[in-house]
Amino acid sequence: MWTDRHRTRHEARLKDMVLQAGLDEVTRFVERADPPGSPSATPARQVLAAIAWHLRVGGAWRALPAGFPPWRTVYG
After folding, report:
1. Dihedral sign, CA of 49, 39, 37, 62?
2. For residue 8, is it within any domain?
3. Quick check: is 62 in a domain?
4. DSSP secondary structure string for all residues of 19-67
5. Model's pTM, two decimal places?
6. Parent domain of 57
7. Using CA atoms, how far apart are residues 32 and 67, in angstroms rounded to an integer?
8. Stretch 12-21: mean pLDDT
C-alpha cells in the first residue's frame, strides 16, 4: 500500500528523471506560445516524467503509478 512516505520518495525520483535543462529543450517543441483554452493544471515536467516511465517500463497507459498525472492527461 502506498503511504505518504512512498509518494514523497516517488515524487523525488520523478524530479531526477526529468532535469530542468532537458525539460526546457523539449517544451520548446511541444508547447505552443498561445495555446487555446485554459492553461494546463498539470506541470509539463510531470507529464514528461510519466512518458519517460512509460517508455522505460512499457505496458498500458492506464497502468501509470499513482504518483503520476492521470493517464488520460499523459496520453492525450
Report:
1. positive
2. no
3. yes
4. -HHHHHHHHHHHS-SS-SSSPPSS-HHHHHHHHHHHHHH-S-GGG--TT
5. 0.61
6. 42-76
7. 26
8. 67
List the grid coordinates of 67. 504518483
The x, y and z cell numbers of residue 74, run together, are 499523459
- Which helix (H) or strand (E) element contains residue 5? helix 4-17
pLDDT tens per residue, range 18-68: 666 677 777 777 666 666 777 778 887 788 888 888 888 888 999 998 888
Give a yes or no: residue 17 inside a domain: no
Q: Is residue 4 part of a domain?
A: no
Q: Which three cell numbers stand for residue 39?
A: 492553461
Instruction: Grade residue 71 by pLDDT with cuts at 50, 70 and 90.
Output: very high
How confident is the model at residue 61, as a pLDDT?
A: 92
